[in-house]
Design the sequence.
């Protein structure tokens, strides 16, 4: 069992601990799906005010649902569609304060009010996007975005299938 107790007084410290925990949780494990599953659980437990947290994987140029926490979600998203597809097509993070004002937003859970999607790239390849949804308008700000970019950079090799054999545990 893994015990990560992330308790922080401020957002910077919260993300610092989250990124360290994400790194420790995925170190040496080559299975991308297992790592995404544990990361979704870790993020879900660590960040307040989320109603969905997880991954869409780039499967031959289409986003396909990966491990997540939250309500059942749409399975396939074409590049360029919705917030996730926009992040995948542009490879730019998407910080959406009000999803109802985002043209083409795909409403998987009607409770979602704001969203942050960050592309995860390794060796110039788009591996997946990290998608965070909140029931609160403007839940995410530039600080969340910048730390989620750092998180994505740290975990990218662990999701790209490039890690070698798992260590003896
Ligand atoms: N809202 C996303 C779809 C995925 S769900 O939020 C889990 C979008 O517009 O791409």
Sequence:
């Amino acid at each position: 069992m893994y015990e990560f107790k992330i308790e922080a007084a401020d957002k910077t410290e919260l993300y610092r601990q989250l990124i360290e925990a994400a790194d420790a949780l995925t170190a040496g494990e080559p299975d991308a799906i297992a790592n995404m599953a544990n990361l979704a659980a870790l993020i879900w437990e660590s960040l307040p005010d989320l109603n969905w947290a997880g991954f869409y994987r780039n499967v031959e140029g289409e986003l396909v649902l990966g491990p997540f926490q939250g309500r059942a979600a749409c399975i396939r998203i074409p590049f360029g569609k919705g917030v996730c597809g926009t992040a995948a097509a542009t490879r730019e993070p998407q910080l959406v304060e009000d999803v109802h004002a985002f043209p083409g937003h795909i409403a998987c859970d009607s409770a979602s009010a704001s969203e942050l999607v960050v592309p995860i790239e390794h060796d110039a390849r788009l591996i997946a996007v990290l998608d965070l949804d909140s029931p609160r308008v403007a839940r995410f700000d530039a600080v969340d975005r910048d730390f989620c970019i750092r998180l994505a950079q740290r975990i990218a090799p662990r999701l790209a299938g490039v890690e070698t054999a798992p260590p003896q545990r």
